[in-house]
């Protein structure tokens, strides 16, 4: 009698759940659509970059790859892009702050899929992949070199290759071995002493270096993971099997990610990013210079001589919408940082723009508490998540790695 | 099984069915009435008729795109000297637009091109147009759901 009662109850409950279309193992149609939109297979083809006419030139990409890993492209001969953007580490370095010639104030960003972004760096202070590459080359904490030294180096080591891809090199004879607008006071003075025409010639080679590196970086893509296999199966209406299965906990985490925990409002689409900037209340690191995020660099990106509206852009000005119509003064830009992609995230702690959190558990805790921002307003609101739900979120994030 | 036992079981079954039924009703009922999605309306003070349309296809999340805003007087005369302020955002997220769109061209017949629009998230967005022309200043707010 008791046993039959229980059976009937269970059957009734199952029926009720099935009728409502929300048994624990099933996703609603809306959830399924969201999940399908996050699969790598939903990623559109990489758009062309008309501002860099060498963007899809194989010779330029090959030269860019060589330069990316060439420590000769630095003042002390010890630093390449690949020093911090490590090829076997998702093109990042596992450190809270990147270290080149000296330690920087930000975490090295992984580079898969980066060519799809409208702005670069945690604060978006450059508007193209090719103008981005020029910044570390002259940053005294990173490659610490100067423009004329790079131009001389290209001529000496890669002159023929350069000219085959780009254009005849300018006449560099008699130009200072090391001069540039961000070098030592002597190097800056030497730069100012050059004629406008000489500086323009060097700047053109410098921009081409960036364009070659950008062509290489366009080839860095995300690899599909277990989440993608699961999402593809779900979209096809087949039961995920083998290495496409998510555990009950991982599914619960996925449901939270796109539901109650609101993560997918910002970490959206196949790259898990909206490519925008948000204040999420991440605390600053004690001892580092004041970091105000996006608001501090609005003028810098607009004034950058290598930006889309400058004379080094290929193609027409119609490609410059992101720069022309960028948000320039909103209070939301205070301590706003770029939403990072979450693909591969479990394999590359620490997290956030200055490596503030050591584990994904700490990250989830940060979102649950939603502490106030030291400056400006955080967009995060406190979450009610049980310990099990927090663990489920972390378990789901790990499915973006294997 | 005694008759009381059977009745208890039957009652449980009925309750479960009722729960199931309610669940269906609850889950399939339309969500709270959404915002007014009309793309043509009269401005707040009644000075203008304002209509908006994406210049090419319906906007997709994350794409920079343009809109055409058509402004006429209530009598239908095209307004051809209008200037615009463009604002908005996501009311549910308390943030503004991710870009700062601008009216960049007058196309004739009261039609203006608004460039630089972007919706960085899915959900409910508002677009607020402040319109100033010789007739006076007025505004119109449109809702969009992505
Ligand atoms: Cu939003």
From TrEMBL, chain A:
It is an enzyme of class 1 (oxidoreductase). It is found in: Periplasm. Residues 1-25 form the signal peptide. Pfam families: CCP_MauG. GO terms for molecular function: cytochrome-c peroxidase activity. Its EC number is 1.11.1.5. PANTHER family: BLL6722 PROTEIN, CYTOCHROME C PEROXIDASE-RELATED. This is Cytochrome c peroxidase. It comes from Aminobacter niigataensis.
Automatic annotation (TrEMBL), chain B:
It comes from Aminobacter niigataensis. It holds the Pfam family YtkA. Residues 48-128 form the YtkA-like domain. This is YtkA-like domain-containing protein. InterPro entries: YtkA-like_dom. It comes from the Bacteria.
């Amino acid at each position: 009698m008791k046993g039959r009662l229980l059976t009937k109850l269970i059957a009734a409950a199952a029926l009720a759940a099935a009728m409502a279309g929300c048994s624990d193992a099933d996703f609603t149609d809306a959830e399924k659509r969201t999940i399908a939109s996050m699969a790598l297979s939903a990623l559109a083809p990489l758009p062309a970059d008309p501002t860099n006419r060498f963007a899809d030139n194989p010779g330029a990409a090959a030269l860019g790859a060589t330069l990316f890993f060439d420590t000769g492209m630095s003042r002390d001969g010890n630093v390449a892009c690949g020093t911090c953007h490590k090829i076997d580490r998702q093109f990042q370095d596992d450190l809270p702050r990147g270290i080149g010639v000296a330690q920087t104030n930000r975490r090295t960003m992984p580079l898969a899929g980066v060519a799809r972004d409208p702005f670069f760096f945690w604060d978006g202070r450059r508007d193209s992949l090719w103008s981005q590459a020029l910044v570390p080359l002259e940053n005294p904490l990173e490659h610490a070199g100067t423009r004329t030294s790079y131009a001389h180096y290209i001529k000496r080591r890669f002159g023929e290759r350069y000219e085959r891809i780009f254009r005849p090199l300018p006449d560099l004879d008699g130009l200072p071995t090391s001069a540039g607008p961000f070098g030592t006071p002597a190097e800056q003075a030497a730069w100012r002493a050059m004629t406008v025409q000489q500086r323009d010639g060097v700047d053109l080679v410098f921009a081409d270096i960036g364009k070659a590196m950008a062509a290489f970086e366009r080839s860095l893509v995300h690899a599909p993971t277990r989440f993608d296999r699961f999402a593809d199966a779900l979209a096809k209406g087949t039961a995920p099997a083998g290495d496409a299965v998510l555990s009950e906990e991982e599914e619960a985490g996925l449901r939270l990610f796109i539901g109650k925990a609101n993560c997918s409002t910002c970490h959206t689409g196949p790259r898990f990013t909206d490519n925008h900037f948000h204040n999420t209340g991440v605390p600053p690191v004690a001892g580092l210079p004041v970091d105000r995020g996006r608001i501090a660099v609005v003028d810098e990106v607009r004034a950058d001589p290598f930006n889309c509206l400058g004379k080094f852009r290929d193609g027409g000005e119609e490609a410059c919408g992101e720069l022309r119509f960028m948000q320039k003064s909103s209070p939301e830009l205070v301590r706003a940082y770029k939403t990072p992609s979450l693909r591969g995230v479990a394999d590359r702690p620490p997290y956030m723009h200055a490596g503030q959190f050591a584990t994904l558990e700490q990250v989830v805790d940060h979102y649950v508490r939603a502490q106030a921002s030291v400056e400006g307003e955080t967009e995060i609101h406190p979450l009610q998540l049980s310990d099990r739900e927090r663990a489920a979120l972390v378990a789901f994030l790990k499915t973006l790695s294997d | 099984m005694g008759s009381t036992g059977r009745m208890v079981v039957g009652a449980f079954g009925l309750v479960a069915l009722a729960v199931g039924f309610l669940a269906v009703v609850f889950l399939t009922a339309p969500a709270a009435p959404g915002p007014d999605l009309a793309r043509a309306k009269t401005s707040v003070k009644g000075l203008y008729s304002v209509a908006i349309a994406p210049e090419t296809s319906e906007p997709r999340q994350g794409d920079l795109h343009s809109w055409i805003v058509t402004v006429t007087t209530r009598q239908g005369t095209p307004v051809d000297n209008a200037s615009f302020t463009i604002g908005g955002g996501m009311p549910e997220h308390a943030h503004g637009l991710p870009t700062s769109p601008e009216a960049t061209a007058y196309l004739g017949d009261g039609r203006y091109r608004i460039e630089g629009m972007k919706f960085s998230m899915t959900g409910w967005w508002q677009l607020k147009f402040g319109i100033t022309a010789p007739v006076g200043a007025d505004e119109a707010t449109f809702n969009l759901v992505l």
